[in-house]
Write a structure and sequence with these properties.
Layout (H helix, E strand, L loop, with lengths): L1 H14 L6 H7 L1 H17 L3 H15 L2 E2 L4 E2 L4 E3 L5 E2 L4 E2 L4 E3 L3 E3 L12 E2 L4 E2 L4 E3 L3 E2 L4 E2 L4 E2 L7 E4 L4 E5 L9
Parallel strand pairs: 1-4, 2-5, 3-6, 4-7, 5-8, 6-9, 7-10, 8-11, 9-12, 10-13, 12-14
Antiparallel strand pairs: 14-15
Helix pairs in contact: 3-4
Length: 180
């Protein structure tokens, strides 16, 4: 897990011009703290320790303002910039190298336990402040979602979507290159 946290910290240092050092990122950025606690909670959740996972998740929420359900699947190098008010639901799947800004919700729109109720976000996606992505929709790799957009339908890879409800304003053939 330490290797993942260092990888996450290096990613933030690369993406955030305000970040000055790995030590600063590791000690002060709420994104790193939320990911650390989420990984522990996710492990416990996956092994049937739902109550313990819930306690850890709620502790992280109180400390960081970022709420990630222990059941959510989070990829490598997630960067939650500022973080306050970010919510990631139980059946959400977040790919590698995703950037979320403050106030983003990856939420559900109902459904029953055991069904996919939350979004799937591809690799290299950027989601602007206040955006709400609701339901079991898919956001394709390298897509961009504008600030305060409300996404209720699938967004293809490489597209830029804005508005409420979100509509595609730009679709480029972008291919996500997996960073090693």
């Amino acid at each position: 897990m330490l290797k993942q946290l260092i990888d996450d910290s290096k990613n933030i240092l690369k993406k955030d011009p305000a970040a000055r050092s790995l030590v600063q990122v590791f000690l002060l950025y709420p994104s790193i703290k939320a990911l650390f606690w989420h990984r522990i909670a996710h492990y416990l959740y996956g092994h049937g320790h739902h109550l313990a996972a819930g306690f850890i998740s709620q502790h992280s929420r109180r400390k960081t303002g970022i709420e990630i359900h222990p059941g959510a699947l989070i990829g490598r190098r997630l960067f939650i910039d500022h973080g306050m008010g970010v919510v990631i639901g139980e059946t959400a799947i977040v790919g590698d190298d995703v950037t979320l800004y403050h106030g983003v919700t990856l939420g559900g729109v109902g459904g029953s336990s055991g069904t996919k109720r939350h979004p799937t976000v591809g690799n290299g996606v950027e989601i602007g402040s206040g955006a709400k992505i609701l339901g079991p929709v898919s956001i394709g790799s390298a897509a961009r979602i504008g600030a305060n957009s409300v996404v209720l339908t699938d967004i293809p890879a490489g597209a830029t979507a804005v508005g409420s409800p979100a509509r595609i304003v730009d679709k480029k053939e972008k291919h996500y290159v997996y960073a090693i």
